[in-house]
Each structure stands twice: as structure tokens, then as C-alpha cells.
Amino acid sequence: MTGKIPRISAHTRYEDEDRFEPSDSQDVYDPDKEALIREMLVRLGEDPEREGLKRTPLRVAKAMDFLTQGYHLSAEDIIKKAMFDEDVTEMVVVRDIEFYSLCEHHMLPFFGHAHIGYLPNGRVVGLSKVARVVDAFARRLQVQERLTSQIADTLLKHLDAKGVAVVMEASHTCMMMRGVQKQSSITISSAMRGAFESDARTRAEFMGLIRR
Ligand code: ZN
Asked: Which of 29, 45, 80, 199 is paired with 179 by a 20 to 30 Å CA distance?
């Protein structure tokens, strides 16, 4: 009873992401967004014309588009393009998938690791796509609990799996840098579906495989 435990880096760049890199020659990227960010700089008491801030509105606009690109991605497409028939019934576990998201209350980052397991039902998905599904939901304004259940429900539905388990551990900068200023607290959320919900042994096997 061995799960597969590959490690996948969230820093893998996807084909289409170069458009978010500010090129030195580009002067305008998204005029409306840049105007808003310039206005925010003014309201914060800054001078958007000073040297260091001149290109900041452009950079912020691109960064925010990058960090929220999940709105334009379909997790269903990501999964369906990478599924293949395979006579596997053993649990598949992908552990320590790094993710970065933005909390919807403060638009500040929260980040950490996702651990995902599923019980195939005659079909498996390319392992890198599991990480890409995490990104498709993480790169939006989120709350961690919803992020966790969206990933689980999407995998369960489109993989047609017998069960899906998702555990996410995250540090929330809105708690670290402001508010209660608790720098070392980790928020853990989980979503258990199918066999992981109904069968304590399946759940225990998964929890054992993701333990450090
Ligand atoms: Zn927050």
C-alpha cells in the first residue's frame, strides 16, 4: 500500500505567463488599472512621479493580473486535457504543493502547502496538473476554507474518483503583519470527499502519507 509521493514546485512557469513580466520598453499595460494604483499611491501620501514609483502602477497592475489569473482558468479543462485510462486503484498522493493566494478580506497574501490524495476509478490525471488545479483556484481572492473545498470538489467531479482528500497549511500575512500579528500561526484546513470521508482507514492512510 504505497502512495506516490512526488514533489512538484509551484515555481514551475506555465507556457502563457510571460505576458505578466514587465518589459522595460512597455510604457502602458492597462491604463484604467494603472490610474487606480496611481490614485492609491497619492491617497497613501506618496508621490507617484518620483523616480522609484514611476513604473510601479504598471508593475502592480501586471502583478495583480498574475495573482488573480485563476479567474480566467478552467480547472475542468486542465484536468480533462491530461486524463488517461489506467488500471490503478491505489491511492495517489501529491504532497507539499506550494501555493500562493490572496485573502479576500485584505487582499494580502496567504501561502503554504497543499497535500492532495485521490483514489482513482480507472482514470488518472497527469501529476503536474494537480498542482495546476491548485493554482487555478489559489490565484484568485480567496478564503482558505473555500479554496480547499473547491479543489476537492473539482477533482472529485472531473476525475470521477472514488474519493479526494485535500489538506492545506497556510500562513496568512494579514494575521502576521497586521491585526493580531501572530507570525508563526499556521492555519490548517481540510476537505474529505467520498472514501476519505466515509472510511477512517483511507483517511488515516492519507494522513500518514502527508506527515512530515
Ligand atoms: Zn485577511
From this structure: 45
Which residues lie below 8 Å from residue 78, measured CB to CB, with a gap of 6+?
129, 132, 133, 136
Extended beta strands in 104-148, E state: 109-119, 123-125, 141-142
Compute the distance from residue 66 Cα to the ligand 1 centre, in Å: 19
- Ligand 1: centre distance to CA 70 (Å): 19
Q: What is the pLDDT of residue 184?
A: 86
CATH code where residue 112 lies = 3.30.1130.10
Cα(138) to ligand 1 centroid in Å equals 14
C-alpha span between 17 and 99 (Å, rounded): 16
pLDDT of residue 2: 41
Give backbone dihedrals phi and psi of 98, rounded to 5 degrees, phi first.
Answer: -70, 145
H/E element, 94: strand 92-103
Spans of the chain, pLDDT less than 70: 1-16, 18, 22-25
Does one domain contain both 96 and 42? no
List, as ranges, residues with CB under 5 A of the ion ligand 1.
Answer: 103, 105-106, 174
